[in-house]
C-alpha cells in the first residue's frame, strides 16, 4: 500500500501539484476546497440552526434548495480533496488525523440524507420538527465542526 | 498597487485614518448622547438612535485598519532618530485596550440596531451598555492618542511618572504574541486557525441566504424571518476578529508587508458594510414572501457575496501570494 502511495507521490502530476512554482497548482486547489467547505457547511449550519429552534419564523419548505447547494459543494470538495490527497499521498494515507476526518464525513453524509428525507418526506409540505430531527441536526452540525477542525489541523501535521 | 505598500506610505495612511477612532469617536459619542435625549421625549419610535448606533458601528469597523497600519508605521519609523521607543510601545499597548473596548461598543451598537429594526425601539439596557462602552473607549482612545503624539514629540508627556501611570491602562500586545507563538504554545496557532474557519463559515452561511433572498431566490421566505439569523453572522465576525487579531499581533510583519493583506482588509470593510446593510436597510426589511426585489438589491446582494469570497480568497492565499511567511 505504502509503495503504491510512494509511486503516486512520484508521478509527474503529484509532483506538479505539490511543487509547481505557480499559484494555479496547490494554492488554487486548496482555495477551491475552502470555498466548497464554506458553501457546504455554511448552508448545513443554517438549516441545522433553524431546525434547532433559531429563527423559527423561517419556513422550512423553501429551504430545500439548500440541500442541492450542499451536495454541489460536496462534489467540489470531493474532487479537490482527491487532488489534495494526490499531492501528498504518503503522509495523508498514514495520518490518523486524516483517517479521523474521513470517518467524520462518512458518518455525516448518511445523516445529511436522513435529515433531508425526515424533513421533506414525499409531501411538498415539510413535517413538524420533532426531537429526532433536532438530534440529527445537532449531531450533523457538530460533525461538520469536527471536520473543519480536523481538516485545518491537517495543515500542521 | 504593490508600490503603494511602502512603510512610509503606511505611516502616512495611519496618520490619515487615525481620526476615525479619535475625532470620529467623539462625533459618534455626541450623536449617541443627543439621540438618547431627543428619543426619550415621547413613547414613540426611536428615530435618532439608529443613526448614532450606525455611526458608532462604522467607527468600530474602521478602527481595524487604523490598528493594523499602526504596526506597519511602527516598523517604518522605529529606527529613525528622535523616536521615543517607550512611547511607541506604550502607544501600541494602550491602543490595543482602547481598540478592544471600542469593538465591544461596536457589538453593542450592532445589537441595538438589530433590535431597533425589529421593534422600532432600542432596548434601554442595550442603549445603556453601548453608552458606557463608548464613553470608556473614548477615554482610553484619548490616552492612546496622547501617547501616540509623544512618539515624535516626547515633550508632550513631560513627567515620566504620568507616562507609567497611563501605560497601566493597557493590554500587552507582546503578551498576546507570546501566548500565540511562545515556546510550548505550538497548539495555539492551529487551534485559532480552526476557530477562524468556523467563524468564516458561520458568517458566510447566514449572509448567503440573506443575500440570495435579496437577489430574488428563496422567494418563499420573508426577509424579516432571515433577519433573525443575523446575530450568528455577527458571532462569526467576532470569532474571526479575535482570532485574526491574535495572528496579526503574533507576526505583524508577515501581514504589514504583504499587499494581499491590504486587499483583504478592503474587502473585509465591504463585508462589514454588507452586514450593516442587511441589518437596517428598509428595502431589505420590506421584502416579504413573493416580493420581487429591486435591481439595486440584486446588485448589492451579488456584490456582497463576491466580496466575501474575495475576503476568503485573500486570506487563504496570504501564504502564497505576495511576500508573506
The coarse overall form of chain B would be: globular
Structural class of chain A, by secondary structure, is mainly alpha
Major beta sheet summary of chain A: none
The N- to C-terminal Cα distance of chain A equals 21 Å
Strand content of chain A: under 5%
- SS-derived structural category of chain B: mainly alpha
Give the count of helical stretches of chain B. Answer: 14
Order of helices and strands of chain B: HHHHHHHHHHHHHH
Gross morphology of chain A:
elongated
Q: What is the mean pLDDT of chain B?
A: 91
Descriptive account of the structure:
The complex is a heterodimer of chains A (about 160) and B (about 325). Chain A has about 160 residues and is mainly alpha-helical. Chain A is built from seven helices and no strands. Chain A has helices at about 1-10, 10-20, 25-50, 65-85, 90-95, 95-120, 130-155. In chain A, helix 3 packs antiparallel against helix 7 and helix 6 runs antiparallel to helix 7 (about 130-155). The model of chain A has no long low-confidence stretch (mean pLDDT about 95). Chain B has about 325 residues and is an all-alpha fold. The chains are: A mainly alpha (about 160), B mainly alpha (about 325). At the A-B interface, helix 3 and helix 7 of A face helix 8, helix 9 and helix 14 of B.
Amino acid at each position: 500500500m505504502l509503495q503504491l502511495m510512494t509511486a503516486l507521490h512520484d508521478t509527474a502530476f503529484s509532483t506538479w501539484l505539490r511543487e509547481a512554482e505557480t499559484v494555479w497548482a496547490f494554492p488554487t486547489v486548496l482555495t477551491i476546497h475552502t470555498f466548497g467547505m464554506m458553501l457546504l457547511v455554511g448552508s448545513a449550519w443554517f438549516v441545522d440552526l433553524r431546525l434547532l429552534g433559531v429563527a423559527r419564523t423561517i419556513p422550512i419548505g423553501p429551504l430545500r434548495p439548500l440541500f442541492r447547494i450542499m451536495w454541489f459543494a460536496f462534489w467540489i470538495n470531493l474532487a479537490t480533496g482527491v487532488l489534495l490527497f494526490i499531492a501528498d499521498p504518503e503522509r495523508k494515507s498514514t495520518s490518523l488525523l486524516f483517517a479521523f476526518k474521513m470517518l467524520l464525513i462518512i458518518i455525516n453524509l448518511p445523516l445529511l440524507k436522513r435529515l433531508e428525507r425526515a424533513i421533506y418526506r414525499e409531501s411538498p409540505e415539510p413535517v413538524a420538527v420533532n426531537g429526532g430531527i433536532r438530534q440529527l441536526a445537532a449531531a450533523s452540525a457538530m460533525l461538520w465542526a469536527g471536520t473543519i477542525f480536523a481538516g485545518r489541523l491537517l495543515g500542521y501535521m | 498597487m504593490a508600490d503603494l505598500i511602502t512603510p512610509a506610505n503606511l505611516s502616512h495612511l495611519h496618520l490619515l485614518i487615525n481620526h476615525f477612532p479619535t475625532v470620529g469617536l467623539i462625533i459618534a459619542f455626541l450623536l449617541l448622547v443627543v439621540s438618547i435625549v431627543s428619543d426619550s421625549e415621547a413613547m414613540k419610535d426611536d428615530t435618532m438612535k439608529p443613526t448614532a448606533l450606525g455611526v458608532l458601528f462604522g467607527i468600530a469597523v474602521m478602527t481595524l485598519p487604523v490598528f493594523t497600519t499602526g504596526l506597519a508605521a511602527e516598523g517604518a519609523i522605529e529606527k529613525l532618530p528622535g523616536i521615543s521607543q517607550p512611547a511607541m510601545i506604550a502607544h501600541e499597548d494602550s491602543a490595543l485596550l482602547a481598540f478592544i473596548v471600542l469593538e465591544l461598543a461596536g457589538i453593542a451598537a450592532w445589537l441595538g440596531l438589530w433590535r431597533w429594526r425589529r421593534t422600532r425601539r432600542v432596548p434601554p439596557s442595550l442603549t445603556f451598555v453601548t453608552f458606557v462602552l463608548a464613553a470608556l473607549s473614548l477615554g482610553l482612545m484619548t490616552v492612546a492618542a496622547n501617547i501616540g503624539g509623544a512618539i515624535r514629540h516626547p515633550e508632550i508627556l513631560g513627567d515620566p511618572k504620568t507616562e507609567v501611570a497611563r501605560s497601566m491602562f493597557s493590554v500587552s500586545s507582546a503578551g498576546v504574541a507570546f501566548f500565540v507563538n511562545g515556546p510550548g504554545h505550538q497548539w495555539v496557532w492551529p487551534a485559532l486557525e480552526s476557530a477562524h474557519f468556523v467563524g468564516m463559515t458561520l458568517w458566510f452561511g447566514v449572509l448567503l441566504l440573506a443575500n440570495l433572498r435579496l437577489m430574488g431566490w428563496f422567494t418563499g421566505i420573508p426577509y424579516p424571518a432571515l433577519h433573525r439569523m443575523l446575530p450568528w453572522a455577527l458571532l462569526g465576525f467576532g470569532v474571526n476578529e479575535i482570532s485574526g487579531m491574535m495572528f496579526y499581533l503574533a507576526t505583524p510583519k508577515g501581514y504589514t508587508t504583504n499587499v494581499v493583506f491590504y486587499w483583504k482588509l478592503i474587502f473585509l470593510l465591504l463585508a462589514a458594510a454588507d452586514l450593516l446593510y442587511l441589518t437596517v436597510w428598509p428595502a431589505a426589511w420590506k421584502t416579504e414572501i413573493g416580493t420581487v426585489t429591486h435591481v439595486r438589491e440584486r446588485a448589492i446582494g451579488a456584490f456582497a457575496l463576491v466580496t466575501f469570497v474575495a475576503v476568503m480568497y485573500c486570506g487563504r492565499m496570504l501564504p502564497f501570494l505576495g511576500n508573506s511567511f
